[in-house]
Amino acid sequence: MSKLQPDLVLATGDLAHRGRRVELERAREILESLDARHLVVPGNHDIPYTFPARFTRTFAEWESIFGPVEQIYASDGLVVVGLNSVRPWRQQGGAVEDAAVHQAVARVREAQDSALRIVALHHHLAAPPWRAARKRPLRRRSQVLAALADAGAELVVGGHVHQASVTEVREFQAAAGRRTGSLVLATAPGFGRPRPHRSGEAQGLNVYESDPQTLTILTYAWGGRSFAEVGRRSFRRG
């Protein structure tokens, strides 16, 4: 991490396996050891697995350790809005309340034009095709994406599928007098592996770099001894 010197470490959920306090506390220790600011959003593995705590204390442990389930980071060059997509009655699928989307839209619109505008949540908006069948994307994702694109968001980062995926979306209808939105959708690979013997799950991370003209996403994967760059994709901003 000292080599990267990031402005922000972004963790898009599944920091725990069964939402146990000891698991979440260990995740916090790891994040704090990186000596960098961090923003985290919960994943479906970060809430209690057992009944009735899953419904009566859904985010109690999370909030006591990490704070609010929806956070924001803002600086002159970067704005990141966290959304909570976890719902206790949806084991795999996720959803975001309309009020939360409206708040995210407002936060994105408040950002300076030069700032990279990111929205982060756990449930993916686009996924590698080999994991998409079982891991359902965010409910009403088209509406959510259209709202974020119209607000000026440039990057939406998700997780959930434990594989890396990066794509650009240019498919939104423009309302009369308004521009057509475009978004880069990134799915972050899993930094840890709660199921180490499960095949098809990557261990790695994405690095997001930007200048006034370009957003570049670098994907690193663990090769057994070190992390190696396995992907580099660049997109024109604006």
Shape: globular
Overall mean pLDDT: 87
> Over the alpha carbons, how many angstroms does the gyration radius reach?
17 Å
CATH architecture: 4-Layer Sandwich
Task: Fill in the keyword field for this structure.
three-stranded antiparallel sheet, 11 strands, 25% strand, globular, Purple Acid Phosphatase, chain A, domain 2, 238 residues, alpha/beta
Would you summarize the structure shown here?
The chain has one domain (9-199): 4-Layer Sandwich (Purple Acid Phosphatase, chain A, domain 2), CATH 3.60.21.10. It is 20% helix and 25% strand. The chain has helices at residues 21-33, 53-56, 60-66, 98-110, 141-151, and strands at 9-11, 38-40, 72-74, 78-82, 116-120, 155-158, 165-169, 183-187, 204-210, 214-222, 227-236.
Detailed description of the structure:
With 238 residues, this protein is an alpha/beta fold. It has one domain: Metallo-dependent phosphatases (Purple Acid Phosphatase, chain A, domain 2). It is 20% helix and 25% strand. The protein is built from 5 helices and 11 strands, in the order βαβααββαβαββββββ. The strands form 3 sheets. It has a 6-stranded mixed sheet. Strands 9-10-11 form a 3-stranded antiparallel sheet, with no helix packed on it. A hairpin with a 3-residue loop joins strand 3 and strand 4. It is globular and about 50 Å long. The protein starts with 8 loop residues before the first strand and ends with a strand.
Write the layout of secondary structure elements.
Blueprint: E1 9-11, H1 21-33, E2 38-40, H2 53-56, H3 60-66, E3 72-74, E4 78-82, H4 98-110, E5 116-120, H5 141-151, E6 155-158, E7 165-169, E8 183-187, E9 204-210, E10 214-222, E11 227-236
Parallel strand pairs: 1-2, 4-5, 5-6, 6-8
Antiparallel strand pairs: 3-4, 7-8, 9-10, 10-11
Helix pairs in contact: 1-3, 4-5
